[in-house]
Amino acid sequence: MEKIILLTGFEPFNQEKINPSWEAVRALQGWREGDFVVHARQLPCVFGSSARMLHQAIEELQPSVVIGVGQAGGRVDMSVERIAINIDDAPIADNKKRQIVDQPVVNDGPAAYFATLPIKAIVHAIREAGLPSSVSHTAGTYVCNHVFYSLMHQAHEWGTTMRAGFIHIPYLPQQAAAHPGAASMKLDDMIEGLRIAVRTTLAYDVDMREAGGVTH
Ligand code: PCA
């Protein structure tokens, strides 16, 4: 049976007109290769409803793999997140104008979850393709981490074999033009990076062992 891969991106937020995560993810809607097909869904940049929409999509599609994608303006590469933490601490209001400070994503949930994607192998493969990537040890404390934590909690609670994780991507060049000094990546390169992430996830049941940490 064909495997379902669910990719999610976000609507624009924080005065941006575009969100590269949705632009990249929607370009992969319907992409088929080998025994899988990709479904793309857009999530609102809103605490609560973003996680609920993701849960509904998972119930409906029963995916084998879920990769959440979000914009991290200022980051320099495709950062593959290692850890989701149980805290909402928003530096800015969400798209429903709510600013949640210091509340758990899930009451009584564990402090954190690790992604179950082969994060080292993904970073390695994206770099091999000549594109910048690194492991990240924080997905922040805003809506992306909220969705990432909710995703990992759902996977854990269900005890499914579904593998899941999150990738943050930089600004597009047209966004970076309004943020002098900020890094950017071309949309096609981001799309290629996500293709590689999907293929690598399916190719590696166990992650490769390669240093990817930081000293700070
Ligand atoms: N990035 C934000 C939320 C939506 C998005 O694309 C974040 O990193 O939390």
Automatic annotation (TrEMBL):
Superkingdom, taxonomy of origin: Bacteria
Location within or outside the cell: Cytoplasm
Enzyme Commission number, as recorded: 3.4.19.3
Record GO terms (molecular function): pyroglutamyl-peptidase activity
Catalytic activity: Release of an N-terminal pyroglutamyl group from a polypeptide, the second amino acid generally not being Pro
Pfam families: Peptidase_C15 (PF01470)
Residues the record marks as active site: 81, 144, 168
Any one biological process term the GO annotation gives: proteolysis
Keywords: Cytoplasm, Hydrolase, Protease, Thiol protease
GO annotation, cellular component aspect: cytosol
Subunit structure as annotated in this protein's UniProt entry: Homotetramer.
NCBIfam families per the UniProt record, alphabetical: PRK13197.1, pyro_pdase
Matches recorded under HAMAP family: Pyrrolid_peptidase (MF_00417)
Primary role: Removes 5-oxoproline from various penultimate amino acid residues except L-proline.
Family designation: Belongs to the peptidase C15 family.
Name under which the protein is recorded: Pyrrolidone-carboxylate peptidase
Annotated organism of origin: Duganella fentianensis
